[in-house]
Amino acid sequence: MENKDNKLLVIPTISRKRLGDQIADVLRKQILLGELSPGRNIPERETAEALGVSRTPLREALVILEGEGLILMAPAKSPIIADPSIEDITQLLLVQSALEGLAGECACERITEEELCQIQLMHEGMTEIADQAEAVDFFLADMAFHEAIVAAAKNQPLIKTHTQYNSRLWRARFMSSRRRVKKRSVTLAEHTNIIEGLTLRDKEQTSVALELHLRDAIKNIATVLSNQENQE
Fold first, then answer.
1. For 116-156, what is each residue's pLDDT tens digit?
2. 8, 147, 155, 162: most buried by Cβ count inside 10 Å?
3. Which of 213, 15, 201, 232 is nearest to 113 (CA)?
């Protein structure tokens, strides 16, 4: 773009992500890592000042996180970090495991070679970083792997429902993933089995592998919560 003096104007690159989304990313990571613990208040004024933003984009971020089940909001009260019970988490994970199993079946019929190659590359990328990646980075890569399989199912009601459940299980699934830091080889082996099922278009192998992968998370989370209660 040129001005009236025919001089080139240098326009800084503007992030495509809204400020509210960026703030949600920051807070989500703090919640996942336990820096913002369950039951803790999030005072809007102090939080906005700490982040160097106004309260409007902070509120946008809080609405996003509320939709993900990470925080609870009520009129005239400060938002608080959600603290679901193990029973609530277990029920959600049981449904989620069934959804991913169904997604695996559908993907066996509809996945393209390009999509299968992309999922394989994601798995290889996780393998490469397994020894040194931070827990949250490995977890995000794991979530992207599962989301790619669900997307390959090409079933919009299934994708929408999976997204809704997944948003409410982020912290729980991260707790499971973090507990398995020293057993990432197990996660990768399970992913290999899933990819093999997709490659063979074997609905049963793919579905069972995905369901078991999720149900293992229930045991991990129960152990984490039990350990936390014993330490209190």
1. 999 999 999 999 999 888 888 898 899 999 999 999 999 99
2. 162
3. 201
CATH assignment, 86-231: 1.20.120.530
Distance between CA 101 and CA 231 in Å, rounded? 36
The two structure tokens encoding residue 56: 């409007």
What's the pTM? 0.75
31, 66 contact by CB (below 8 A):
no
Question: Which amino acid appears at position 113 of this protein?
Answer: E
Spatial CB neighbours of 49, under 8 Å, sequence gap ≥ 6: none
Q: Which CATH architecture has domain 19-81?
A: Orthogonal Bundle (1.10)
Q: Alpha-carbon distance 225 to 216, whole Å? A: 15
What would the pLDDT profile of 28-84 be if each residue is shown by its tens digit?
Answer: 888 887 788 888 999 999 999 999 999 999 999 999 999 888 899 988 788 999 888
Longest dimension (CA), the chain: 72
| Cα-based distances in Å from 46 to 58, 105, 232 | 11, 48, 28
How far, in Å, CA of 81 to CA of 188, rounded?
31
